[in-house]
Amino acid sequence: MRMYDLILKKRNGEALSKAEIQYFIDGYTDGTIPDYQASALLMAIYFQKMNEAETAFLTEAMMHSGDVIDLSAIDGIKVDKHSTGGVGDKTTIALAPIVAACGVPVAKMSGRGLGHTGGTLDKLESIPGFDVHMSIDQFINNVNRLKIAVAGQTADLAPADKKIYALRDVTATVDNISLIASSVMSKKLASGADAIVLDVKTGNGAFMKNTEDAFKLASEMVTIGSNMGRNTIALVTNMDEPLGNAVGNSLEVKEAIDTLKGEGPEDFRELCITLASYMLLLAGNIDSIEAGREKVENVISTGKALEVFKTFVAAQGGDIKYVEDTNLLNSSKKIYPLQSDKSGYINRIYAEEVGLSALLLGAGRETKDSIIDLSVGIVLNKKVGDYVEKGEPLAFIHYNDEDKKDNAVEKLKTAYLINEDNPAKSPLIFGTVTREGIQRL
């Protein structure tokens, strides 16, 4: 078998066999297939697409390219949640303790941020002392004792995907549905969960700018998970404007903690409640989404979810005084109010521009080696549909560096579309995808 033949075959629009895909994954992972040939194949896949069988073969090969974690020692059905990424998406920080407080084990392996999308691990490390590094035995023990643990992915988890994603990132082959689906699902399947809830973002701040493409991606991932014996469901959710108000590591942690206290922005709170309800449903903890909502709202209102969060933070070395008083969290030296230059209704807030503005402040990584400033970011004062007076703040920019602030201000100004008409509000959740098909809301 030769890599040249695989490239030629896919370039001509033919389907690759399981053996051919395994050959590619094995060879690229061990370094015998060079980057230039892997790049050529990825570009051929980008243009010629992959069918359902090829996507499944690719997912399975990447899943087995390293360790496959065995979580059978954890009592109960383990339900994982994965978001395809967005701006202000701090969902795991609030969602995991909510689900754990309902009695469902959450064994979560998360990643770090790159570009304008933030990483859960970076955000949690805003809490002084919080440690995302632990052995598998410790990870399992924490989940059995506390119903919750969040750790960084091991170096040996789906290493083929890590190599391929890095190559896709520099060869303009990221936004292909089969490649995205196989990348996400290879890591989720290797992480050992029994069931998976997928939050597939669509809109300006997401990979999938188009809602129909988001439903296609969701369907592909649900099919992969189901065929691999995992009960899988996807929600297609709105990322045209940032989720919640806060964008930036410490700022997002504070907002997640506020939500656990029964406060926090309405859109973020609603998404957490909905995702948690589906996780409880897949775990067999409740028999309907309505029952799930009731249970979730109860653990928030009684303070149980917040107490689970404190226990979880303490168990991973974090200082809970920063949870009890979020004003102690790392904060920027200065805050700049971005004032509106006109009166009117907010018709659009382009999420990607907000995310890039936060990146310019230092809240994200431009490269994997970039050092994040955990204190900086943006807090929106107005959301789509709100009325703003001329001179009223649209957002507050939390910054430490004047030059970075100036660059962020210019970028953030382009994020807002304001006019006299009150816009129709887009839904937060566009629909769900199960093995049985798509249900639009």
Automatic annotation (TrEMBL):
GO CC, alphabetical? cytosol
Keywords of this protein's UniProt record, alphabetized?
A: Glycosyltransferase, Metal-binding, Transferase
Identify the EC number(s). Answer: 2.4.2.2
Cofactor(s) listed in the protein's UniProt record: K(+)
What is one process in the GO biological process aspect for this record?
Answer: pyrimidine nucleobase metabolic process
Q: Extract the InterPro entries matched here.
A: Glycosyl_Trfase_fam3, Glycosyl_Trfase_fam3_N_dom, Glycosyl_Trfase_fam3_N_dom_sf, Nuc_phospho_transferase, PYNP-like_C_sf, PYNP_C, Pyrmidine_PPas_bac/euk, Pyrmidine_PPase_CS
- Where in this chain does the record put each Pyrimidine nucleoside phosphorylase C-terminal domain? 345-419
* Reaction(s) this enzyme catalyzes, per UniProt: thymidine + phosphate = 2-deoxy-alpha-D-ribose 1-phosphate + thymine; uridine + phosphate = alpha-D-ribose 1-phosphate + uracil; 2'-deoxyuridine + phosphate = 2-deoxy-alpha-D-ribose 1-phosphate + uracil
**PANTHER family to which the protein is assigned, alphabetical:** THYMIDINE PHOSPHORYLASE (PTHR10515:SF0)
Its biological purpose: Catalyzes phosphorolysis of the pyrimidine nucleosides uridine, thymidine and 2'-deoxyuridine with the formation of the corresponding pyrimidine base and ribose-1-phosphate.
According to its UniProt record, which protein family does this protein belong to? Belongs to the thymidine/pyrimidine-nucleoside phosphorylase family.
- What is the name attached to this protein's record? Pyrimidine-nucleoside phosphorylase
Originating organism: Alkaliphilus oremlandii (strain OhILAs) (Clostridium oremlandii (strain OhILAs))
